[in-house]
Design goal:
This protein is mostly helical and 146 residues long. The chain is built from three helices and two strands. The longest helix has 52 residues.
């Protein structure tokens, strides 16, 4: 018997008394017997053959390795969920950026159109301002005048 296995503890009397012999009851079969190999679990049991692994109880020496593999698996699953969530955020940000870029282009073209000389003259005409038809005069100063 292996030392590193877990077995259920039986409440034993502390005095020197006669121990009871456990009665073994035959299992009652409420269902009719099925043909061997028709169930998924029977097929798995037939091809995996892991009964020898638990023959002497639960092997505790493998527990750290199993817990480590469970931890790595949980980390992998969590990392996958985190990556999916990050990709969804990136796609959402890309869509918002494209919308903002389109808005920027539209506003820029409207501003360029509104800043043309003909548009400015048309917009200030109701205020009574008119475009000058004479060219500007250049003022020339001599060096010693000022």
């Amino acid at each position: 018997m292996a030392v590193n296995t877990v077995r259920p503890q039986v409440n034993r009397p502390k005095a020197n008394t006669v121990r009871e012999v456990p009665r073994v009851e035959k299992p009652r079969s409420a269902r009719p017997k099925r043909q061997k190999g028709t169930s998924l679990f029977e097929l798995l049991d037939r091809y995996t053959k892991v009964d020898w692994f638990f023959a002497e109880g639960l092997p505790v020496r493998y527990l750290p390795k199993v817990l480590f593999l469970m931890g790595v698996t949980l980390f992998y699953i969590g990392n996958t969920h985190y990556a999916d969530r990050t990709l969804r955020r990136i796609d959402k940000t890309k869509a918002e950026t494209e919308d903002l870029r389109a808005d920027y282009t539209t506003l820029k073209s409207e501003y360029m159109e509104a800043s043309k000389q003909s548009e400015v003259a048309r917009n200030v005409a109701p205020l009574g301002l008119m475009e000058s038809s004479t060219p500007p005069i250049q003022v020339v100063l001599k060096k010693d005048e000022y």
